[in-house]
């Protein structure tokens, strides 16, 4: 009997089930590997397994939905990232590095949002807004990575007000995504561009002042 006959008869293909078992096996192996490394290095905390293992299986539960496309893929994407965050928390608890590794809790959620940049809402306004959020999330990802490097002692800005640079980057991201609307013949185009560019310019200038160190400390 052909696959089409099976489909007409109401029998679901076995592929999603195989994908789930493959994902579950891969993530179970990952959890076992993290546990083994923690034991070998003397950082094993057995109770962290109650976070690590559920995180692995939550991630595995979302993988089959990713392969189906459409709205199910969006749901699968969300579930996979939730599971990945839970798994990461379990791994940090297992190794006892939460004090220095907390920036990962900034990196993973913002990276999940930034990864949606490739999605294309049909209306230009919705697309510009969505891509603005995704770009700002990417700025958040780099900020988390920078915090991680600072905690590791690899980067030291001293007394520099370096966070002003992130305000400038956020302003540029909002302005560029707003200016893209000039390409589209839509109603209220100029108003939408103004609402994006004007606040972005203010944030950029404030960030520049902070970065230069001439922001007043007393009022």
Keywords:
219 residues; mainly alpha; 9 helices; 73% helix
Question: Any overview of this molecule?
Answer:
- This protein is an all-alpha fold and 219 residues long.
- It folds into 2 domains: 96 residues, no CATH class; 99 residues, no CATH class.
- Helix content is 73%, strand content 0%.
- The chain contains 9 helices and no strands.
- Helix 3 runs antiparallel to helix 4 and helix 8 packs antiparallel against helix 9.
- The longest helix has 28 residues.
- It is flat, with a radius of gyration of 23 Å.
- The N and C termini lie far apart (81 Å).
- The N terminus is likely disordered.
- Keywords: Membrane, Transmembrane, Transmembrane helix.
What number is the mean pLDDT?
Answer: 84
Q: What's the structural domain tally?
A: 2
* Integer-rounded radius of gyration: 23 Å
Question: Helix/strand-derived class?
Answer: mainly alpha
Largest sheet: none
**Treating each run of at least 4 consecutive H or I residues as one helix, how many helices?**
9
Strand content: under 5%
Using the alpha-carbon principal axes, give the shape: flat
Helix-strand pattern: HHHHHHHHH
């Amino acid at each position: 009997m052909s696959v089409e006959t099976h489909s007409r008869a109401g029998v679901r293909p076995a592929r999603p089930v195989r994908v789930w078992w493959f994902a579950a096996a891969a993530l179970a192996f990952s959890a076992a590997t993290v546990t083994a490394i923690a034991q070998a290095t003397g950082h094993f905390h057995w109770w962290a397994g109650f976070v690590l293992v559920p995180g692995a299986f939550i991630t595995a539960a979302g993988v089959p939905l990713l392969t189906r496309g459409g709205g199910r893929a969006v749901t699968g994407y969300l579930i996979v990232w939730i599971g990945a965050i839970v798994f990461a928390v379990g791994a940090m608890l297992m190794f006892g590095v939460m004090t220095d590794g907390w920036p990962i809790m900034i990196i993973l959620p913002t990276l999940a949002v930034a990864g949606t940049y490739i999605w294309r809402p049909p209306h230009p306004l919705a697309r510009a807004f969505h891509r603005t959020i995704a770009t700002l999330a990417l700025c958040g990802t780099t900020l988390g990575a920078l915090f991680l490097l600072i905690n590791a002692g690899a980067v030291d800005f001293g007394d520099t007000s370096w966070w002003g640079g992130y305000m400038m980057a956020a302003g540029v991201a909002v302005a560029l995504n707003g200016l893209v609307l000039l390409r589209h013949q839509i109603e209220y185009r100029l108003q939408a561009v103004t609402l994006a560019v004007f606040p972005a310019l203010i944030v950029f200038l404030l960030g520049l002042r902070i970065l230069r160190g001439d922001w007043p400390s007393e009022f």
